[in-house]
Amino acid sequence: MPINQPSNQIKLTNVSIVRLKKGGKRFEIACYKNKVQEWRNGVETNIDDVLQISNVFMNVSKGEVAKHGELKKAFGTTEISEIVSEILKKGEVQVGEKEREHDQSALRKEIATLVAEKCVDPATQRPYPVGMIEKAMSEAGYSLKPNKNAKSQVSDCIKILQSDSTLPIQRARMRVRVTMPIADGKRLRDEILEGSEKVEEDEMGQNEWEVIMLIDPGQFRVINELLQKESKGKGRIETMTFAATA
């Protein structure tokens, strides 16, 4: 015998629940995954494309809709659009345990991959496998920040690995070429070379000075700003590679 579902029962799939506690009650709305953050960032402006169903619940999973009296008491209004906007703005996005574990695992892997791209073994100047970085992160007790993207956590992760893990690690050195007119080269040479860790080539030609050197990636911006300020657009710095060997 087929099972007949009530015609008024709506099956919500791919749902993301946003919850707000107010006036001693818990109110929930059912949204599409990923749309909540897009709405908060201003990428999505149509609230109908965020909501799976334009209603306010006491409990989405049980289909328990909030009564008008409860909404009026908590929000001072029964206007659904106003209440939904407030919940979207101030509420917490609820994430299931399995989804949370999956997201954290993916974030950890992404951070480890970025660290592996930017760092090397100081003894060999060669990169570590991502799995070894992940193991060192666990050893150092590195705590993920779920609300931040992987890229913004890389610098902190590297510092913690250097201080709290047994894995010898340093940032890979960037190989750059700096060129500028001879007059600027004579004037700025010492200041430019101050930011280098190793000079590979240093040639003062008839019309142009060129130097190829290894620098800490953080020095790239410093040198570039110096060139923009002092060389009036005639000097340039370009990345050749991240050094894989000493």
From TrEMBL:
<dbReference type="InterPro" id="IPR037188">
    <property type="entry name" value="Sdo1/SBDS_central_sf"/>
</dbReference>
<dbReference type="InterPro" id="IPR036786">
    <property type="entry name" value="Ribosome_mat_SBDS_N_sf"/>
</dbReference>
<dbReference type="Pfam" id="PF20268">
    <property type="entry name" value="SBDS_C"/>
</dbReference>
<keyword id="KW-0690">Ribosome biogenesis</keyword>
<protein>
    <submittedName>
        <fullName>Shwachman-Bodian-diamond syndrome protein</fullName>
    </submittedName>
</protein>
<comment type="subunit">
    <text>Associates with the 60S ribosomal subunit.</text>
</comment>
<dbReference type="InterPro" id="IPR039100">
    <property type="entry name" value="Sdo1/SBDS-like"/>
</dbReference>
<feature type="domain" description="Ribosome maturation protein SDO1/SBDS N-terminal">
    <location>
        <begin position="14"/>
        <end position="100"/>
    </location>
</feature>
<feature type="domain" description="Ribosome maturation protein SDO1/SBDS C-terminal">
    <location>
        <begin position="174"/>
        <end position="241"/>
    </location>
</feature>
<keyword id="KW-0963">Cytoplasm</keyword>
<feature type="domain" description="Ribosome maturation protein SDO1/SBDS central">
    <location>
        <begin position="109"/>
        <end position="172"/>
    </location>
</feature>
<dbReference type="InterPro" id="IPR019783">
    <property type="entry name" value="SDO1/SBDS_N"/>
</dbReference>
<keyword id="KW-0539">Nucleus</keyword>
<dbReference type="InterPro" id="IPR002140">
    <property type="entry name" value="Sdo1/SBDS"/>
</dbReference>
<dbReference type="InterPro" id="IPR018978">
    <property type="entry name" value="SDO1/SBDS_central"/>
</dbReference>
<dbReference type="InterPro" id="IPR046928">
    <property type="entry name" value="SDO1/SBDS_C"/>
</dbReference>
<comment type="similarity">
    <text>Belongs to the SDO1/SBDS family.</text>
</comment>
<dbReference type="Pfam" id="PF09377">
    <property type="entry name" value="SBDS_domain_II"/>
</dbReference>
<dbReference type="InterPro" id="IPR018023">
    <property type="entry name" value="Ribosome_mat_SBDS_CS"/>
</dbReference>
<dbReference type="Pfam" id="PF01172">
    <property type="entry name" value="SBDS_N"/>
</dbReference>
